[in-house]
Amino acid sequence: MKPISGFLASLPPEEQSGPLATLLPALFFGEKKQALNASYELWNILCNQGQVVPAALPVYDLLVQGLPELEPDLQVEVLDILYQFAAGAAVKGSGEPWRAALRERLQRDRAVYQRLAQSTSEDSSLCPADPGTAIEKGPGASQGLSVLVSDRQLRGRLEQ
Asked: Most CB atoms closer than 10 Å: which of 15, 17, 82, 116?
């Protein structure tokens, strides 16, 4: 995984000392409660109610790189953020190049989501056999992961 310090240097200058600079290290290196709180705050900052912001683009790569290293309950939270990124990246015709780049990265990284789905197939919190048993927060990891894994669903989501 890319070191946090190197990642933070890649953020726009105004973000380097903002909340992302403290929330991202907390998500990946904090105690469990701190990490869960950081995931919630990241969701609020980056994609609250489907309104994805440009800062999602530089954060995306770090979330995807760190996703396999997280505990399942934190993976669920990050998958929810990534699912919201897919929804927000679907806004076409906005003239915002960062949305197009985010769409490309989501499609590029399908293999990461497929590996995660295969490695966690027995973890009911991430991939329940019955989609009706999905986690109650956000869209649930099962829905988010199924969209991120399925080429047709991801393309459909990104081409809406």
From this structure: 82
